[in-house]
Amino acid sequence: MAKISKRYKALSEKIEERDYSLADACATVKSLASAKFDESVEVALNLNVDPRHADQMIRGAIVLPHGTGKTVRVAVFAKGTKVDEAKAAGADIVGNDDLVETVQAGNIDFDVLIATPDCMGLVGKLGRILGPKGLMPNPKVGTVTMDVTKAVNDAKGGQVAYRVDKKGNMQAALGKVSFSEEAIRENVETFIAAINKAKPSSAKGRYMKNAAISLTMSPSVNMDVLELMDVK
């Protein structure tokens, strides 16, 4: 069993063994900041779904009202006029055949990859490289699109992609501890509202089993799932 540090133990003692309201959870998690860097605020959910059934695979993306606090590098596969459109929107890397060669050479200097539909044949060649890194463009999260400007703006402006794993777990970084309590709460509410909206009609029983919020280097604070399931 891993040894618990004095710092981690001291932080744990600040957390009561109960389910916190969303507002209290955001206030408490801010009080747990102890690292020498601006820690991410992370939310973890356990949903009562079975992703083995296609209609219960919850996947999508949401733009947070206060962004993620991260600087995001965006690459775009595009051709023709869409190349200039991507550059004008602020994409860091734009290309097609040359970008294939760059990625195949192992130079993956971007956090989000967007592609126009007519370039997906090229992108498909990179599936074995991009897939394991979670970088394959997908229409469900808005990264396969002809609206390159919107896709780049969303990625740069704080878009968060989410996907439930085979056990119904989902985790997302929704801001930084330097954000105000209100900004953290509004980001979390926006994310939770998207997850609630995505609830499959075939899901039975209580949709959200557990929910917790934490920092990169902190213990987690349990949240009241009954309150969260009412967030619209």
Strand and helix layout:
Blueprint: H1 6-12, H2 22-30, E1 40-47, E2 59-63, E3 74-77, H3 81-89, E4 93-95, H4 97-104, E5 112-115, H5 120-124, H6 127-130, H7 148-156, E6 159-163, E7 169-176, H8 181-197, E8 208-215, E9 221-222, H9 225-228
Parallel strand pairs: 3-4, 3-5
Antiparallel strand pairs: 1-7, 1-8, 2-6, 8-9
Helix pairs in contact: 2-8, 3-7
Architecture overview:
The protein contains 9 helices and 9 strands. It has helices at 6-12, 22-30, 81-89, 97-104, 120-124, 127-130, 148-156, 181-197, 225-228, and strands at 40-47, 59-63, 74-77, 93-95, 112-115, 159-163, 169-176, 208-215, 221-222. Helix 2 crosses helix 8 and helix 3 packs parallel to helix 7. The chain is globular. The model has no long low-confidence stretch (mean pLDDT 94).
